[in-house]
Amino acid sequence: MTTRPGPGDEAAASDQRQLVQDWITLWQSELAALAVDREAHETWQAMLALWAGAASAMLQAWPHEHPDRRAGATAEAGAAPAAAAPDPRDAAIERLTRRVGELEARLSDVERGNRGHGAGRPGAGRGRGTARHRPG
Predict the structure, then answer these.
(1) How confident is the model at residue 127, as a pLDDT?
(2) Alpha helices in 36-87 (DSSP H)
(3) Which of 26, 51, 72, 124 could cysteine-pair with 63, CB 3.0–4.6 Å?
(4) Which pTM was predicted?
(5) Cβ neighbours for 5, distance < 8 A, ≥ 6 positions apart
(6) Which is more confidently placed, 71 or 53?
(7) Quick check: 125 and 115 in contact, CB under 8 A?
(8) Distance CA 136, CA 133 (A)
């Protein structure tokens, strides 16, 4: 048996529908205002940056699984620790470090008056408008 809704039930359903519609309209206007609020954008960006930093730190601290042992297991006695994965930036840093050393040596030679000698490259002082120092 089904019962038919009475006049009071229809009025209550209509009131609920109106309340839901008003609630949706209110939140749509709030979200629209939030979307154009510069301070809200800055706050969200700062919060997301903090979350990203925290997530990155957690991932770096997370124990890594190795095929030959379970996560977090300690290395066997006497076993060599696993080498860090090579970073392609390491080679560039090493190359730049060597180059800075070479340039420092050349600058030191120039300051001592030994232009072109011991500069690390043959002919380093030539062709750039500098006079070549010749011992007399």
Answers:
(1) 46
(2) 38-61
(3) 72
(4) 0.32
(5) 13
(6) 53
(7) yes
(8) 9
